[in-house]
Amino acid sequence: MTDAYRTVGGRAEARFEVQGSEFIGYISPAETVEEAEAFVEEINERHPDATHNVPAYRVPAGGASSSVPGGGNVMLREYQSDDGEPTGSSGKPALNVLVQQEVRNVVAVVTRYYGGTNLGVGGLARAYSRAVKEALGEAGIVEEIPHERFTATVDYDDSGSVRGIIESSGVEFDADYDQRVSFSVRVPVDEADGLRDRLRSATSGRVELE
Predict the structure, then answer these.
(1) Geometric angle at alpha carbon 27, from 124 and 110, rounded to 5°
(2) Which tens digits make up the pLDDT trace of 40-92?
(3) How far is Cα 140 from Cα 194, in angstroms, rounded to an integer?
(4) pLDDT digits over 131-146, tens only?
């Protein structure tokens, strides 16, 4: 089986205060750099008046797990920014939590509202680490296996049998009924080739896979 990996069970947040400064840790699953950046932007838009919005993420480089299958051998893009805090006081401690917890396909943003007291580099590092740890605790860590996505497109005559095969396989999918019928499928990497073969056989090769 393709190696499983650790990631978060969903979105979560955690809040606390340190000497008057409010810290809010946000965490979310993300399968691509684009998804991670979109989450960072979402938090920036939610807190445009925050003193700092510090991001950190670990996601597959160059694509989702779908296009870079594998567990421990997948190339990860690790990114962090101090967003105006003293160098090394915030982004790196936030990212270090994700590394130490061995979670990937995950993005964190820690929002800070300054409370009037300087915390020092050590105090900031502890606060930003705590925000990510507590958000991780709220989200829960789960074991996941790499998935890939593909689209199966057929004429209406074949759509019933194709939908039946996809439903019987128990995978996630969306169907789009237009001039032809397209099924967008999310399937474990280890099962993808077998499912594609079944769809080809059922349609005598008429299915278009991409």
Answers:
(1) 25
(2) 999 999 999 999 999 999 998 865 444 444 444 578 999 999 999 999 999 99
(3) 32
(4) 999 999 999 999 888 8
3-class secondary structure, 88:
coil
Tokens found for residue 129: 């680490």
Residue 60 bridge partners (DSSP): 76
First to last CA, the chain: 23
- Per-residue pLDDT reduced to its tens digit, 97-141: 999 999 999 999 999 999 999 999 999 999 999 999 999 999 999
Which tokens sit at 131? 């925000």
Helices 91-100 and 120-139: crossing angle, nearest 10°? Answer: 40
**Which structure tokens are listed for 153?**
């497109």
Q: Are 83 and 53 in contact (CB under 8 A)?
A: yes
DSSP 4: P
What is the separation of C-alpha 23 from the centre of its chain, rounded to a whole number of angstroms?
22
Burial of 49: CB neighbours in 10 Å, binned 0-12, 13-18, 19+ = exposed
